[in-house]
Write a structure and sequence with these properties.
The structure holds 2 protein chains of 2 kinds. Chain A is mainly alpha-helical. Chain A has helices spanning 2-29, 34-42, 47-61, 67-79, 94-127, 131-146, 149-163, 183-221, 223-230, 235-271, 277-286, 290-318, 320-323. Chain A is built from 13 helices and no strands. In chain A, helix 5 (94-127) crosses helix 8 (183-221). Chain B starts with a helix and ends in a 7-residue tail after the last helix. Classes of the chains: A mainly alpha, B mainly alpha. At the A-B interface, helix 1, helix 6, helix 7, helix 8 and helix 10 of A face helix 4, helix 5, helix 9, helix 10 and helix 11 of B.
Amino acid sequence: MRRYFGRKVLIYLLTFFVAVTIDWLIPRFMPGDPVLSMLGRVGTAHPDTVNAMREYFTRVFGLDVPIWQQYLNFWASLLRGDLGVSVYRFPREVADVIMTAVPYDIALLVPSILLSWIAGNKFGAYAARRKWLDNTILPLGYTLTATPYMWLAILLAWGLGIKLDLFPIAGAYAFDMAPHWSWRFISSVLHHWILPFASLFLVNFGGWAIGMRNVIIYELEADYSHYLEALGAPQQLVRKYAYRNALLPQLTGLALQLGVIVAGALVTEVVFSYPGIGFQLLAAVQNQDYFLLQGCFLFIIVGVLLANFIIDIVYVIVDPRTRRGMTGEMA
Amino acid sequence: MMEKKSKKRNEFFYFAFKNNKLRIGLLIVLFFLVMAIIGPSFTENDPLSFIHRGVPLKPFESEDFIFGTTVFGQDVYSQFVYGLRATFVVGAIGGGLATLIGVIVGFIGGYMGGKTDEGLNMGTNIVLVIPTLAVLLIISAYLEVRGILLESVFIGCTAWPWTARAVRAQTFSLRSREFVDLAKMSGMKSLKIIFKEIAPNMMSYLLLVFILQFGGATLNAATLDFIGLGPTQGISLGLMMNHAVAHSALLLDIWWWFIPPGLAITAIVGALYVTNVGLDEVFNPKLREM
C-alpha cells in the first residue's frame, strides 16, 4: 500500500512541477510580447507614460533578471501564495479573485459529480440485460454524453429559464441581494444553482450510465457469474457481485474524466454567468488578464490533482487488492 | 490462404451490414459529412458578413436565408455548413494525431518493457492528470493569431494519453501470446514482428480508438471555441454558440442561431459513439446480440 501511494504522490508532484513550468514557460516563449500587448490595451501614446508603464510591467513580470532566476522567483512567489495582481479587477490580487470564485465551483462540481456518478451507475446496472430498458438507455445515454456541455446549458437556460420562466438564468443569487444568512437569500442561491447543476448532472449521467452498462455486461458474462448461476444463486445476487466488480473501472473512469468535467463546468458557468472560475476565466480571456488566467490554470490543476488523490484513497478502501500490495486496476 | 482471407473479409461485411447500430451511426455521420463537403457550394453568402438588414429572419422566411439570419444579418446556413467543415477538420486531424501519438507511445512502451516503458508510462500518467482544456486555454490565450489547423494540432497533442495507456495494455497482452513467441523463436526481426504479427491484430482496436478520439477532439474544439479561444478567423460551430450567447440570442428568442450548431455536434458525436459500439460488436462476436 505504501508503494501504491508513494508512486501516486510522486506522479502528482511531478505533474504539479510540469504544470507550474508550463505556466511559467508559455507567457515567456510564445510569439508576441505580453508587456507590449498590455501596453497596447492602455491606449496612451505619451512616451513618458508608456516608458513608465513598460518598466512597471517588466518588473511585475520579473523580466529584468536572468532566465533561471525568473524561474526560481516564480516558484518562490507561488509558494508564498502570490499569484500577482489581476489587471481587469485591479488592484485585487489574483489569489483573492480566485478564492471568492471557488465556493461556487465546489457547490456546482461536487454534487453534480457525485450524484451523476452514483445515479448513472445504478441506472446503467439496472438497465443492462433488460431488453426494453436497455434499448431506451443506450440511445438516451449516448445522446446525453455526446451533448456539448454548453449546448445543454443553453437549451436549459432558453427552455426552462426564458420560455417557461421557471428559473433565473444569470448570477448566483438575485441581483438586488448581498450575501447574508437569511432564508430568502439561501432560497435565491438554490434557485440560481438548479439549472447549472442540472445541465452538468445530465451530461455526466449519460456517460456513467453507458459506462456501467457496458462494463457490467462483461462482468455478467465472466466465469464467476456463470459459476454462481450454475450453483443456483438468485439472479439478484449475481448482479450484486457483478455490480461491485464493475464499480472499479468506473472509479478509474471518474479519475480520467475529471478534467473533462471541470472543462464542462467552466463553459456551463459561462452560459449562466455563474461567478465561479469559468466565469473569471472568460473575463480574463476577454480582458487579456494574463495573471488571472495563469492563476486559474494553476488552480484548476491543483484541484484536479487533489480530486485524483481522493479517488486513489477511495480506491484503496474499495479494492482490497491494492491494500495487500497486489497491483490493482490502477497502475 | 488467399481464400481464407477473402472469406474472412466477406464475413466482416456481412455482420457489418446486418448491424443496426453501425448502419444508423454511419448514416448520420455521412449525412453531415456530405453537408459539410457540398453544403458551402449552395450559398454565395460569406458566413461572417453582415448581409441582411433589419429584423433577423426566421428560418425559411426568405429563400436566400433558409436557416434564418443572426442579429447582425449574417446567414446562419452559411455559418452552419462552414462550421461543419471546421468540425470535421478538427475531428480528423486532432483525433488522428491523438491516435497516432498514443499508438506510438503505448506501443513502444508495451513492446519494449523495462526502463523505456517505465519512463513513457510516467510521462503518460503525468499528461493524463493535467486537464487538457486548461493547457489548451493557456496556450491559445497567448497566441494572437490562431488557425483551425493549429487548434487541431494542439488538441491532438494533449488528448493522446488514454490511448497510449490502452494501447500499452493491448500490446502487453499480445506480446505474450504464442504466435509472437513462435515468430521470435524463428528469428524474425523486432520491427517485422511488430508490423506482421502484432499490428494486424490491433487494427480493429485502433479504428475504435480513432472514432472515440475524433468525437473527443470535436467536443474539445467546441469548448475552446465557445470560450472565445478558437480560431481567430473563420467560423465554427462552437463559435456560433459563442456569438449567439454573447449577443443575447436567448433573450431575443433567436433559437435558430444556437440550436443547429449544438444539435449537429451532438448528432455527429453521438452517432460516432453508436458506430463505435456497432463496430465493436462486429469485431467481437461475443458481444453480438443473439
